[in-house]
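Progress against Task 2.4 (sequence-to-structure conversion) is shown through the following example record, which the project officer requested during the mid-term review.
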Amino acid sequence: MDVQARLNPTDLFSAKGLVVVITGGGSGIGLAIASALYQTGAAHIYLLGRRLDILQDAIKTLESSPSAPNTSSTVLTAISADVTDQSTIDAAVEQITKEVGYVDVLINNAGIIGPANGQDLRKAESIDQLKDAFLKDYDKWHSTLAINTQSVIGVSGAFLPLLNAANTRRGWAPGKVTGDGNPRVQDASALSKAGLDADDDRMAQIITVASVASFMRVAFSGLAYSASKSAAMHLGKMLSTILAEWGIRSNVVCPGPFPSDMTSKVHPKFGTAQVPQGRMGGVGDVAGVLLFLVGKGGAYVNGSAQLMDGGRLGVFPTTY
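C-alpha cells generated for the chain above:
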C-alpha cells in the first residue's frame, strides 16, 4: 500500500457521475438517499414509486433546495412503478435502457410496515389476547412480504442487464468469471473514454435497505415487518455470493428509527435503553453510509450489512 498517496474525500465519498435507481425514492430514507447522491454529483437518479405525484413533489423539493447542485442537465427522473408488479418494473428498465443504457447502483428501498401487532404482543395479558395479537391483520402478511422481501429479487433480477452494462462501460470483462487465481480483468482505457479516473475499479452494485429489525428479537413494529426485513437482509447477502462470479456487488443497509411515514407516530427522542444516541437518524447519517458504499471508498465492500441505528442493537436482544 502506498500510504503517501493523496486521499481525496470527495472521491472516496461521492456519487459523482453515477447512474442510480432508487425504489421508494419519494419519501423518508429513499428521499434522503436521493438528496445525498444528488448533492454529490450523480449523473442521473431515477426515483421509482407507485405514486407519480409523490415522486414529482420529491424532485421539486430536491431541485429547489439551496443545497441543489448547479447543473443545467436533468438529473432527477420520476418513474411510476410498483415493485410487486413485474410488468411496471420491466417498463422502467426499458425506459432507462433507452435513456442511458446502464445503471451503476440499484437501491432496493421500497417498504411498508404491514400488520402492526408489535404493541399488542407486548400488552397481551392472556393467551387469548396473545393469540389475537399473532393473528391481527393476518391477511396483510402477503403484501408485506411481497413489497419488503420478494421485490428485492424481482427488481434486482430485472436490472441485472443494466448493472452488467455499467461494468462493461467501465472496462470490466463481461459475463461469468470463475476459478482460483482468475480475477476479472479491467481494460483501463475504457475509464478515460467514459470520463472516469484511472484508479476507479468500482463494480456495479445493488444496495438493499433492510432494517435494524432484521436482527432484533423484539417485534416493535410487527412480526411481518421483522420477518420480511430479516429475509431482505439475508437475500442481500446471498446476492453478493450469487453475483460474485458476475462482477456485481451487493450490500445491505440496516437503519434504525428515521423520520418517515412509517415512524410518524413515534416520539423522536429516545432514552439510553432505546437508542443510545438519543434521537432518530437524519439525512447526514444516511449520507455518511450511502456515500461510503457508492463512492470509491466502498469499492472493496461486498456482502456487508451496514448498521445505522444509533446503537439500538446494543441495548436489545438481537441475532447480529
